[in-house]
Amino acid sequence: MHILTKEIYSLYQKPDYKIEKKNIMTGHWNYCEDGECGPINWEGAHGQHQSPIDIDLGGVERKDTVDAIKFVNYDKILKGSIVNNGHSVQIVPEEAVEHPEIYGGGLDQVYRLVQYHFHWGAHANEGAEHRVGGLSYPAELHLVHQGIENPDRLAVVGVFLRVGQEGKALAEEEQALRHIIEPGSTTTLDHISIGNKLPKNRTSFWRYEGSLTTPPCSEIVTWTLFTEPIDVTSQQLDLLRNLKDSEHVCLKKNFRPVQKLNDRTVYHIVARH
Ligand SMILES: [Zn+2]
């Protein structure tokens, strides 16, 4: 297995408490702001191109010469597993012949969906990792894709979640969330339709180069953030907040604070159809 693939899998698939037992010093991290295992002390946290960021609407550069992102097999029904890894709830779709992939939209290669997971907060005024004009949505979905030609690169598609009646964002996972409250617990999902997790408008998005938002914070990610959010219900948000982390306390929040933009540019892409 490719070294980075290994890293991604160990990062996203292994329940963290197992890592912790093996190596307390390097395996343990959390979202406690002032704690020694908190975001300031994470491995790799001090790079110059870190994520998430605050998208300053006055400072973005508009681009309208880019084609739309092609979402291949996003309409297919997938099976997969859902795990509480102690930091988030993560869904890993089973390898399928018609596996979801993305390309175009200014991306440098074809990227394949590896997993998706959520970030949330203790109340409705926080939760998303990226901020928009200083404001926060209550949650954010990350669809993590790995490069096929160059697997050292990731393309993460971020979708902001706002509170609404429909709750499309977690409709297929809602029941399973009640069965994975303990860290390390996992169950299966028989019906995942990734397409339902994308907004209707897929032609307007922000794009910038950044990092993983969890240790080791590697600066290998091309970020795509849709400007249009999708709905999550307040009950679904409560189910997320009720999950337990590796210290067996409620996982009230799991978003990294915003990082400095430094010398980067954020583009607002309004793609051609
Ligand atoms: Zn994430």
Explain this structure to me?
The structure is a single chain. The protein has 273 residues and is mainly beta. It has a single domain, classed as Roll (Carbonic Anhydrase II). It is built from five helices and 15 strands. The strands form two sheets. Strands 2, 3, 4, 5, 6, 7, 9, 10, 11, 12, 13, 14 and 15 form a 13-stranded mixed sheet that branches. A hairpin with a 6-residue loop joins strand 6 and strand 7 (111-120). The longest helix has 10 residues, at 3-12. The structure holds zinc ion. Zinc ion (ZN) binds at residues 117, 119, 142, 213.
CATH first level: which class? Alpha Beta
Distance linking N and C termini:
37 Å
Number of domains: 1
Largest sheet: 13 strands, mixed
Could you name the CATH topology? Answer: Carbonic Anhydrase II
Q: Could you estimate the helical fraction of the residues in percent? A: 10-25%
Ligand inventory: zinc ion
Shape: globular
The averaged pLDDT comes out at: 90
Output the structural class.
mainly beta
* H-E order: HHHEEEEEEEEEEHEEEEHE
List unreliable stretches of 5+ residues: 9-26
- CATH A-level architecture: Roll
Instruction: Tell me the number of strands.
Output: 15
- Radius of gyration of CA atoms, rounded to a whole number: 17 Å
H/I helix tally: 5
Name the CATH superfamily classification. Alpha carbonic anhydrase
Query: How much of the sequence is in beta strands?
Result: 25-35%
In short:
The chain is mainly beta and 273 residues long. Helices cover 12% and strands 31% of the residues. It has one domain (49-270): Alpha carbonic anhydrase (Carbonic Anhydrase II).
